[in-house]
């Protein structure tokens, strides 16, 4: 069926109602390298860049890099990098074939090719969506210098495995060649993501500078600290996993096959700190908000959207809901989310031009989108990496301010309970976490709730060294007692929320 596969040639035969690139893809110059070519990038940054290219800004094509799997490359290379973005709302679905990704590399197969494109003078921006866990932070937030991949990259700087290793080696090569450094734009859900990645890369480069294997490239830590821009950004678009049913439906609408279409919602948002010494696309023409400080927008999104998503995911799984819209339609979970938002809103600045009421009203509409089928199990992945910025940060600020936080702490307890439910009331491996091995060993001991929560906090580094850490542990433990005794029903009742069917 390869002759009926989406490609440059077959794109000319698409139905008129399907939007497709109207620009000459052969005339595009690659100006951006993206690390982590997953579904979110293809629904978000790549879609914005597609609009830039269509408007004539032809020197900002994307060279995509997968740091681990060849899956995306294998799906898209036969399609000349083209794929379908299906925007699904309650009013229907619109299809748009995206052409902004010009090439795809798989780092483990050919790290030298990745370094070459990063060192290419045409590359002026490197963007990242590698997920929170790929930043390889230790429990205290610094670089996990003992991680096997970090150890490898320090010993083998010319054949790196991590984003840290690739970025540092490429910047060293550019410095050696007299090529100005690219701008590094983090698009992952990390607090102050640009500053965080900047700090982690300086930590990595400091270790590398001290390593004999990097002889001739000393001083990279100072170079990165002084000469490389790391603007922060905030990204927002819900992107559920693509299913075989999605592929079949899209193929029927296109009249040709697409191995990996991407599903998404109509809403999208991108807020970026405007710090690009090597230039940038005129993103503001296409709906991107360019600001001097992204922090307030980032906090609102992390604490209201992502925090609610985590609560919906873990409580939804415990209540038997497979999708976000199903869970959010559960009256008890909906009331819980409304109360969670009120707790988190108290931690947001009131002088930054934010409108949390309008934002949460929009979130409620997005969570109710029945066409999206966003799986709770997908959102549940990597809780130990996500909860610090989504929930723990808000909870700590509530404690410091003396405001209520009982709904925030239930999210943490629900995460622990959902982890414990895998292989019992939930399927084995229903969702995953970097701490799965020690978490499973701990939860199998069935220790009292307070001991369990304390051990989890130690393991994940939650609220480490904070004066109110023990108070937070005790609040989470109370919820865990309720969840263990009678599931979400008792946990909701303790908050004055009547569970569905009561």
From TrEMBL:
Residues 31-285 form the Mannitol dehydrogenase N-terminal domain. It comes from the Bacteria. GO terms for molecular function: oxidoreductase activity, acting on the CH-OH group of donors, NAD or NADP as acceptor. GO terms for biological process: mannitol metabolic process. The keyword Oxidoreductase applies. PROSITE patterns: MANNITOL_DHGENASE (PS00974). Residues 293-478 form the Mannitol dehydrogenase C-terminal domain. SUPFAM superfamilies: 6-phosphogluconate dehydrogenase C-terminal domain-like, NAD(P)-binding Rossmann-fold domains. It holds the Pfam family Mannitol_dh. Keywords: NAD, Oxidoreductase. This is Mannitol-1-phosphate/altronate dehydrogenase. The lineage of its organism: Bacteria, Pseudomonadati, Pseudomonadota, Alphaproteobacteria, Hyphomicrobiales.
